[in-house]
Structure formats: structure tokens, C-alpha cells
Amino acid sequence: MALKYKLILASGSPRRVDLLNQAGIEPSRLMPMDIDEAPKKSEHPRSLARRLSTEKAEAALAAIKGDMTWKGSYILAADTVVAVGRRILGKAEFADEASASLYLLSGRSHWVYTGVCLITPDRKVRQKIVETKVRFKRLSGFEIENYLASGQWRGKAGAYGIQGLAGTFVQKMVGSYTNVVGLPLYETILLLTGEGFDVHSRWPEA
Ligand SMILES: Cc1cn([C@H]2C[C@H](O)[C@@H](COP(=O)(O)OP(=O)(O)OP(=O)(O)O)O2)c(=O)[nH]c1=O
């Protein structure tokens, strides 16, 4: 898809850039937004994905405020959350946290929620929250140790990346694969083309 517009990707995730490129879209600018990603007390994982994707897009909009170079640009942001039931499995900082996450995912199903938020040049907000159900096989201690040694858990929600070695753990998946990797392409294109989205609010012109 050849985008006629300037697109700011409010992200530092190399996966999101790759996925957009896969769809034929080259962001004009990458703006990683450093926001507090801690869930609120008893916040549902779906609500968290919605809130954080909105906050990332909003932060990018605030950052370009008054800069005429970016007038007329779209802003795209996403947030991926992994959860077992309502229990949110964040990005592990250390191997022991990653290990705990993998033991929890072993032999059961979990949900991956990605919130995608697009702000249009006329500052309308288009948003989608996409859900994928993933079932992991039962993982042996050896498989977990081996995975931890690969380092592929770093910087990823739930401490795994389906696009790498952890792809071999997946027994079953229902829903979008690209959603799990960090940006659901089908829905993102719908947002960009202006079809099938939820309008929540409108922000003033940057
Ligand atoms: C579950 C899963 C997540 N991930 C990644 C996607 C996201 O980069 C990351 C989830 O963290 P996010 O907070 O959604 O994104 P991020 O901090 O990496 O990037 P940014 O906020 O700047 O956009 O986990 C995979 O790459 N593969 C997977 O299978």
C-alpha cells in the first residue's frame, strides 16, 4: 500500500517497523515514546493495551506540537500486552522473571492484546484493540533454560517472541499472528484507510 501521507510511528520497536515495511509502508519518522507502562490497579489487559497505545500516540502528538514539518502527518502507536486470564505478563527485565513467565505460559492458553491508535492529520483518533489466543505446549525445564539462554525474551511482552524460537512452543493460535508480533496488519490497514474503527475523541490541532 503506497501511503500518500507522512506517517510518524510513535515506537522504538523494530518489529513494528518491520511489520509496517511488510505492508509496504515506510514511516517518515520514528518517535519512541518513553511512557510509564505500569498497569493500574485491577486494570484489564485489554484496557491497558488501549490506554498505553493512546498515551504513546498522544505523547508523540504533544512532542510535534508547533513543528510545521509534521503538520498533516498521521501518528501511529501500538501496545502489546500478554495475559493469562487477567494476570498481565510484562516485559521481563531479568532472566528469573522471564523464567517465571515461561513457566506460567507452559501448557496453557493465554491472550495477546494489541492496542493500535492512529491520529489523523485532522486530529481524529482511530483505534482498535485486537485479541489473539495462543496455546503453548508444556515446556520442559530444559526448553525453558535453552530459551532463556537465547536471550530472545528480552524486550518482549510475556518474555517470548513468537517470530523466533518460541514459535516452536505454539500448539494452537486463534486470531492474528501479526497482532502477537506487535502490530496487527489487517486492522492497522483498516485504520489507515479509514474503515471499521472506533472513534473515541478528537484532539486539538498540533
Ligand atoms: C508476544 C510478543 C511480543 N513481542 C514484542 C512486541 C513489542 O515490541 C513488545 C511489547 O512491548 P510494547 O510496550 O508493546 O512495545 P515496545 O516497548 O517494544 O515498543 P514501543 O512502545 O516503543 O512501540 O513485545 C514480540 O516481538 N513477539 C511476541 O511474540
UniProtKB/TrEMBL annotation:
Please verify whether the record's keywords include Cytoplasm: yes
* Enzymatic class: hydrolase
Q: Which UniProt keywords apply?
A: Cytoplasm, Hydrolase, Nucleotide metabolism
What is catalysed by this protein?
Answer: UTP + H2O = UMP + diphosphate + H(+); dTTP + H2O = dTMP + diphosphate + H(+)
InterPro entries for this protein: ITPase-like_fam, Maf-like
Q: Where in the cell is it found?
A: Cytoplasm
GO cellular component labels? cytoplasm
Question: What cofactor(s) does the depicted protein rely on?
Answer: a divalent metal cation
Record has Hydrolase as a keyword: yes
- Please name the Pfam families in this protein's record: Maf
EC number(s): the record gives 3.6.1.9
Active site (UniProt): D79
Q: Which Gene Ontology terms cover its molecular function?
A: nucleoside triphosphate diphosphatase activity
The positions annotated as site (Important for substrate specificity) read R15, T80, Q163
Say which family it is in.
Answer: Belongs to the Maf family. YhdE subfamily.
Q: So what does this one do? A: Nucleoside triphosphate pyrophosphatase that hydrolyzes dTTP and UTP. May have a dual role in cell division arrest and in preventing the incorporation of modified nucleotides into cellular nucleic acids.
Q: Can you name this protein?
A: dTTP/UTP pyrophosphatase
* Source organism (scientific name): Rhizobium grahamii
Its organism's taxonomic lineage begins at: Bacteria, Pseudomonadati, Pseudomonadota, Alphaproteobacteria, Hyphomicrobiales
